[in-house]
Specification:
Length: 129
């Protein structure tokens, strides 16, 4: 895990830090080849420069975001934004279903929309995988 992600997690309240640490551990375990960095002030993991998954502290929860999550078959994610992103929100680390999270992370590798070139394509997404 990138030092900036560790610093982000350490800055959270104890309950939120447990959520962030649990999410980071599972993401690192499932996507060891992904590059992790703090991007737009939140931890994000990238595959070949394309954002795949990240999390952020909201006012009332920690949001786990999958950039291509609306295309996943595994249920449990809510649509987020106007593109293909989907999210899950947690208020306690015990709410994280590790089996479901593992399936989402596997799908995040196999199902990707090209966010890396979104600006170049003037807001049009193309599926990579």
């Amino acid at each position: 895990m990138h030092a900036d992600t560790e610093q982000y997690n350490a800055a959270q309240s104890p309950d939120d830090r447990r959520i962030c640490d649990a999410l980071a551990r599972e993401i690192e375990r499932a996507l060891p080849e992904a590059e992790n960095k703090v991007w737009h002030a939140h931890p994000v993991w990238f595959l070949d420069g394309n954002p795949i998954v990240g999390y952020s502290k909201l006012k009332d929860s920690v949001r786990l975001l999958f950039w291509s999550g609306q295309s996943f078959a595994t249920p449990g994610l809510a649509p987020e934004g106007k593109f293909k992103a989907a999210e899950a929100r947690y208020t306690l680390a015990e709410q994280i279903d590790r089996d479901v999270l593992t399936r989402w992370l596997a799908e995040s590798r196999d199902i990707q929309w090209d966010y890396q070139n979104l600006v170049r394509r003037k807001g049009r997404l193309e599926r990579l995988r």
